[in-house]
Amino acid sequence: MARHVLLALFSALLLATAITTSEAFSRTVKAPYQAHKPKKLTHLHFYFHDIVSGAKPTTAIVAVGPATNTSASAFGMVVVIDDPLTVGPEITSEEVGRAQGMYASADQKSFGLFVAFNLMFTKGEFAGSTASLYGRNPVMSKVREMPIIAGTGAFRFGRGYAQARTFTFNTTSGNAVVEYNVYIWH
Ligand SMILES: *[C@@H]1O[C@H](CO)[C@@H](O)[C@H](O)[C@H]1NC(C)=O
Ligand SMILES: *[C@@H]1O[C@H](CO)[C@@H](O)[C@H](O)[C@H]1NC(C)=O
User: Fold this and answer.
1) Which positions carry the signal peptide feature in this UniProt record (predicted)?
2) What does pTM read for this prediction?
């Protein structure tokens, strides 16, 4: 019995110490919302058009680093994009949204992009909703997987992933068409 009392006292002391320590730096507060439980998984399929040259480019190189020009992977280049998303691979196919944001060449050895953009949907059930894509895109790989970290509208509390596959790449113009399969729990 005495041992139990001692143990209880000891735990209470530990607890008190823990609370004092944690309160100094952080504390847990009552969550303002109930925990959100995803209800459905949505699969989106579309083509992303990265138009870097021609009469109407949808990308702009906004910065380069001191070594970008001599780097085989264009390290340090930052590009802002407003790329169309279409149902089919042709640019004339129905536009369902835009990919707005940026990518940066962030790998010194191979061609690897840091990407951060919003998929802004403009057609159908998801018109007005967005999904935020953030991750690493090793563009030379056959399939590149990137996280969907959040969303708005229909995709509020959204989480998921995107898989990108180059559909066509024109080595003369630098323009690319990329097939996207996106899965979002929301
Ligand atoms: C890189 O090349 C471009 C175009 O050839 C040139 O305008 C720019 O000044 C160069 N930048 C650096 C940092 O050398
Ligand atoms: C590739 O781009 C060049 C330059 O814009 C263009 O003349 C050519 O038709 C394009 N090739 C294909 C297969 O689209």
Assistant:
1) 1-24
2) 0.81
